[in-house]
Design a protein that fits this description.
This protein is an alpha/beta fold. It is built from 18 helices and 11 strands. Helix 12 packs across helix 13. It starts with 6 loop residues before the first helix and ends with a strand. 33% of the residues are buried. Bound molecules: S-adenosylmethionine. The site of S-adenosylmethionine has 21 residues, from helix 13 and strand 6.
Amino acid sequence: MTPPLPPSSKNLSVPAGGAPPGQPRRRMASRDAAERAAFFARREAAGVLRRVLRGDASRRAAGSIKSLVYSPSVRNKRATFALVCQTLKYLPILKEVLASSGLLTSKWKKQEELVYVTAYDILFGQEIAASGSVEQLIVLHKDVLMSALEKICVRRKVHSVEDLLSKKSSVKPKPRFLRVNTLRTTTESVIEELNKTHTVEKDDMVPDMLVLPPGTDLHNHHLVKDGKVFLQGKASCMVAVALCPKPGWKVIDACAAPGNKTVHLAALMDGEGSIIACELNKERAKTLQHTVRKSGANNIETINGDFLDINSNDPSYAEVHAILLDPSCSGSGISTERLDHLLPSHSSGKLWIVMAHAPCVYLSHPFRKTTDLHGYWVVMRVVFAECI
Ligand SMILES: C[S@@+](CC[C@H](N)C(=O)[O-])C[C@H]1O[C@@H](n2cnc3c(N)ncnc32)[C@H](O)[C@@H]1O
């Protein structure tokens, strides 16, 4: 599908007959290509937005925003992701503006999400060509929409859209958490080192967890690169702490990659005892091995395979004290990274349990083997969005 560029849109910026004097054809061609890419990105974003909003409304999310954007059907992932996030951020305002302008009639309701994405782009994003019917609608009514926006600002007694957004938003920026890898260093020496350049506090709940101001970027810090600290969320760290393995125990980490909890277990066990870390996926198993190497733990055996295939009659598993079961897939597993705070249900103030961390689909398997599991401690992640 090639997006039509109707005469009206060409008239917006390009004089009839081709390039304006002094403007090379090449620049025009690249602008056409950019407009075409933006046209498709808006449609891809609208598709993702529809699934996100429907999932949010019915509490049956088809996936996180990231997982929907990164599905193979979305081609321009970067632009689509940015558009979805930005549109969600501005959505309450966009809805109000569109409602007061009366633009979202039943005819356009069918393309509601595309109207939101396009209205975002035109009102708050970039200047775009009226390359499709929805673009034409919004471009044509841009003045009406802008004046509706101004009236809302006046009514709310704010000077800018940013003020309006911050009034609407209930999201507090999350601090940057990090976990000291006590196999390689001590919490005190990390605090001393980081204190030279940052404000650092100890977490009051999770041992060896440090808290830094939101937005602190430590990805390239030598402590991170050397495996002395792990950039691990608080929720993620609570799991091994809850399991509380003792030095000398034998523990299975059933779904281990990328291995953050595996190496946390090793640290809590002071490197004593043993950990069997299973990972089904071949590529992720390599990441797991990398994390294990980086941690300096030498009591971890990694297995690239399905933990359900473990033969529990094998005598080598007779001594297993505990299984850490973390089968869901979601970054380091905190709601900020899942972008849940952008969803309408978040602003409605409802408490969400991040059930992605305890999906029955996986649990149904091990529970078939209830007798095998008898006597093991299984710790699952069930994280309350509000407590992190
Ligand atoms: C949420 S991630 C684990 C995150 C990890 N615990 C951490 O904190 O770094 C889930 C992992 O489990 C793996 N997995 C899912 N089912 C599995 C199974 N039956 N056996 C082994 N690994 C499995 C997935 O491939 C995925 O890499």
